[in-house]
Amino acid sequence: MFTAFLIKYGEIGIKGKNRYMFEDALVQQIKYALKKCEGEFSIRKTQGRIYVDAQTEFDYDETVERLTQVFGISGICPVVYVEDEGFEKLCETVVQYMKDVYGDCDKTFKVFARRARKNYPLESQEICMEMGGAILNAFPEMKVDVHNPEIKLNIEIREKIYIYSEEIPGAMGMPVGTGGKAMLLLSGGIDSPVAGYMVAKRGVKIDAVYFHAPPYTSERAKEKVVDLARIVSKYTGPIYLHVINFTDIQLYIYENCPHDELTIIMRRYMMRIAEQIAQETECLGLITGESIGQVASQTMQSLAVTNEVCELPVYRPLIAFDKEDIVTLSKKIGTYETSILPFEDCCTIFVAKHPVTKPNLGIIKKHELCLSEKIDELVQTALDTKELIIATEN
Ligand code: ATP
Ligand code: MG
Q1: For a 10 Å CB count at each end of the chain, is N or C smaller?
Q2: Of all protein residues, whose CA lies closest to atom 17 belonging to ligand 1?
Q3: Is the shortest distance between the CB of 191 and ligand 1 below 6 Å?
Q4: pLDDT of 13
Q5: Measured from the CA of 295, which atom of ligand 1 is nearest?
Q6: Based on the domain organization, do 246 and 268 belong to the same domain?
Q7: SS3 readout for the chain
Q8: CB under 5 Å of ion ligand 2: residues
Q9: Ligand 1 atom at shortest distance from the alpha carbon of 288
Q10: How many structural domains is the chain composed of?
């Protein structure tokens, strides 16, 4: 029965000049989200509202699911359009709408009328009164509640007449693209896809970098990361995934530095390389899935030493999350099942039995000097040979 959706968005942060940017980005993201849906849609912006109109038959559940994945939407209202065939006919149609949506119910309601077309013979207040009366006649069990109604029945008089009463909660957040761009360090684990999702929810476009270490990490491990990027791209739009061959750098560190410091030194090089790509691609920050105390390289001391190499801000949205909460979120966004597939991560190959948990920056820097002969060249080669994969939905 529904032929359109009214898209509601929060008003915060979209006042004045930003409004157009916000709305255009939202329209863009809605288009992207609906591209894979059955049916054709047109999206229009009118008078501070966005409507998604179905042009053909469509799958209601699939469409709603897609719309609930778009950041920046606060509510999705399924709308019925009817032709203006006089007020009496409209009352009949609305009574039928109430029957179809709620059955013979005993809920409280309130009518909200908006007369966008000023030549309509009744004023908003009259529409509310008359329509309320017609509903009470048809449903003796229902009551009007003007303060806290269970059903908010909206009637909007435009070229056609719009009827809606349901509001499906949206994803909230801000439309991707309104908040600049950041570089996500994406591994095949549980945490980093969730971290990317969270920052994207605030309107930030995401690029990603993955450090691949063949033959220590398999092609399948890389595919898994691409799959994760694809899942996250459902929410964020296409993700430019830079794959860096990290093997020679890892081996060189392994040969020249104390093994208990391997992870921390390796992480410093990951951050340095990620930052370099970030700067070349106009990213305004880095994102990682780190959380205090989760592993040796994520103690406060280790995070400080890792962070020291970066000039760009490093966003760590999971920093104070328990693993359990991260797992819950990853299940919600659909990355969990892929993240737990058993393909080795480049960090697990070279890990020491007893990695330092309280690294000292001075000592780490001193040991990094042992790499000075070849490391710049290796980093440059890694950058020169990087592979770019554009991850979108299949
Ligand atoms: P995740 O579940 O995201 O893999 P983790 O708990 O396994 O995290 P680490 O392996 O210590 O933690 O990695 C910390 C963060 O460093 C990750 O969240 C990710 O942002 C980044 N990272 C780790 N390994 C890689 C990699 N191979 N490529 C890109 N980024 C990585
Ligand atoms: Mg990991």
Answers
A1: C
A2: 289
A3: yes
A4: 57
A5: 11
A6: yes
A7: CCCEEEEECCCCCCCCCHHHHHHHHHHHHHHHHHCCCCCCEEEEEECCEEEEEECCCCCHHHHHHHHCCCCCCCEEEEEEEECCCCHHHHHHHHHHHHHHHHCCCCCEEEEEEEECCCCCCCCHHHHHHHHHHHHHHHCCCCEECCCCCCEEEEEEECCCEEEECCCEECCCCECCCCCCEEEEECCCCCHHHHHHHHHHHECCEEEEEEEECCCCCCHHHHHHHHHHHHHHHHHHCCEEEEEEECHHHHHHHHHHCCHHHHHHHHHHHHHHHHHHHHHHCCCCCEECCCCCCCCHHHCHHHHHHHHCCCCCCEECCCCCCCHHHHHHHHHHHCCHHHHCCCCCCHHHHCCCCCCCCCCCHHHHHHHHHHHCCCHHHHHHHHHHCCEEEEECCC
A8: 187, 189, 345
A9: 20
A10: 2
Q: Is the Cβ atom of 288 under 6 angstroms away from ligand 1?
A: yes
Of 114, 141, 169, which residue constitutes the final position of a domain? Answer: 169
Q: Is the CB of 289 under 6 A from ligand 1?
A: yes
Q: What is the per-residue pLDDT across 241-252, written as a single tens digit (0 to 9) for each?
A: 999 999 999 999
Could you say which ligand is closest to the alpha carbon of residue 245?
A: 1
Classify residue 344 as exposed, middle or buried by CB count within 10 Å of its CB (0-12, 13-18, 19+): middle
* Per-residue confidence band for 16, with pLDDT thresholds at 50, 70 and 90: confident
Question: pTM value?
Answer: 0.92
Residue 210 lies in a domain: yes
CATH of the domain at 95: 3.30.2130.30
Summarize the confidence of residues 194-198 as an average pLDDT.
98
